[in-house]
Amino acid sequence: MTVQAPIVSFAGVNKIFNPGSAKETVALRDINLAIEAGSFVSVIGPSGCGKSTLLRLVGDLIQPTAGEVQVKGKPARQARLNQDYGIVFQAPVLFEWRSILKNIQLPMELRGTTPAERDKRARELLGLVELTGFERHYPWQLSGGMQQRASIARALAIQPELLLMDEPFGALDEMTRERMNMELHNIWRQTGTTVLFVTHSIPEAVFLSTRILVMSARPGEIMHVVEVNLPVPRGEHTRAEAAYFEVEREVREWLRRAQGYSS
Amino acid sequence: MVAPRPGVQLVTRIRRFAPALVLFVAVLFLWELAIRLFDVQQFLLPAPSVIAAAFAQNLDRLLFVGWFTTKEALGGFLIGCTAGIVVAFATARWSTMSQTLMPFAIAANSVPIIAFAPIVNNWFGVDNPLSKMLIVAVIVFFPMMINTVRGLTLVDPAALELMRANAASELQVLLKLRVPNALPYMFNAFKVAATLSMIGAVVSEYFGGSRSALGIFITQEAAQFRFANAWSAIIVASIVGITFYLAVLLAERLAIPWHSSVRSHD
Q1: Considering only alpha carbons, which residue of chain B is nearest residue A138?
Q2: N or C end of chain B: which has fewer CB within 10 A?
C-alpha cells in the first residue's frame, strides 16, 4: 500500500493579526496538520478560537505569519489560482442579479468554460442538491436552506477535489440543518471530494466526519484529534448507535477542556 | 410564486393610484373654490381654470419654449452623467485617486452650482444653450459620481472573497461584481439627476438666456403681470420634469428587475 500525499498540509503555521500593534492577536499557534484525500475533517472549538482562520489559510484568503500551508502539494496561493478548491461560507453569498442557474455557473464562467458545458454541468448540480425546477428563480425567491444548497452546488461546479465549508449550516434551523447534513453526507460519498468543515455543532461534526479536530481557545491550537470510525453510508440510524454517542461524548469532553483553557 | 392574472393586476393598480388621484382632483377643486369664494387677486394666485385657459391659448409657444429647455436639460444630463460615471470608474479603480477626489466631490456637491449661472453665461454667451447645459452638467455630475463610486466600492466583502477564492481577475471582479452592484446606486443618481437637470435648466435661464427658453418665457410673462401664462409655463416645466423622472424609473425596472427597490411592488 502506498502512502498517499495529503491534500492539505500545515507545517509550523502561526497566524498573528495586527502584529506589533496594540491590537495584536495570536489567532493560531504552531499548527501541524495533514488531511488525507477523500476524508471529511471537521474543525470544532470555542468561538474565536481561529477555526475560520484555519480554513481561510487553506483557501489563501489570508496568509500565515509563519510556516507553510500546502494544498495538493502546492503552495496555497497556487492552488487558489488553479481553482483547486470550492468554498461555502456561512452566508450563501449568491449574487442577487443572477438567477440560481447563473449563480452556480459563476466559478465556471471565471475559468472560461464554454456556455454549453456550463449549462449542462449546472443542471446536473441542481439535481444533486435537489433544486431542479429553480433554475430561473432569483436568490430572494428561495428559502435560506435552498439558498445554501445553491451555494454548495456553486462550490462543486468546478469539480474540486477539496471543499472548504465555513459553518455553512450555522444560520439554519435544527430540522433544516439535519436534512442538509444528510444531503451533504450523500454528496460527499457521491463526489469523493475531501471536505474541510468548520462548525460549532457537535452532533453535526460527529455525524459527518471521519476526523474531528478539537481546537483550544485563543491562541488556537489543535488540542485533540478524534477519529470517527462510524460506518458509511450514514443515516438516521447512525444517530441511534452506541458508537455515535461514544464519539459525541468524547468530543464534548475535549471541547469542555478546550473552553477551560481560556477561563 | 404565482403570477396574478392581468385583469386582477390592473384592478390592484387602479386601487393603488386611486387615493392619489382623488387627492389631486380635490386640491384642484378646493383651489378653484377658494379663489372664487375669497375673490383672490389674479397676480397672487390665478384659478386652475384660468391657468388651463392660458395653457390652451399659448400651447404652440409653450411647446416651443418647453422643447428648447428640455434639450438643454437633456444635454446637460447626458454630459454630466457620462462625466460622473467615467470619473467614478477611474476613481474606484485607483484608491489613491478616490481618497484624493472624494472629499472634494462631497464638498462640491453641497455648493449651490446654480449661483455660477451668470458667470457661465458670460463665458459662452447668454443665448448659447451650451451655457445652460454646462450648468446642468456640473449640477448632476457630483451626485452621479459619488453614487457610482459608492456602488463600485461598497461591495459585500464575502462576495469579494468568493471571487478571490475562484481566482477572478481584477477585470472579472469589476464586470461581474462591482458593476452589477453599482447599478442600483447609479439609478438612484439618475433619478436625482433627472429632477435636478430640469430645475437647473429653468433656473439658470432666469439669469438670462435665449427668447426661445422656458425660463425666459416665465420671467417675461411674470414681469408683464400675465401670471396665468407664467403658471402655464411652470406646468410645462413640471410635466417635463415628471416625465423625465418616470422615464428613468421605467429604465430602472427594465435594467435591474432583480433589485429589491423594483421587485417589492407585489
Answers
A1: B258
A2: N
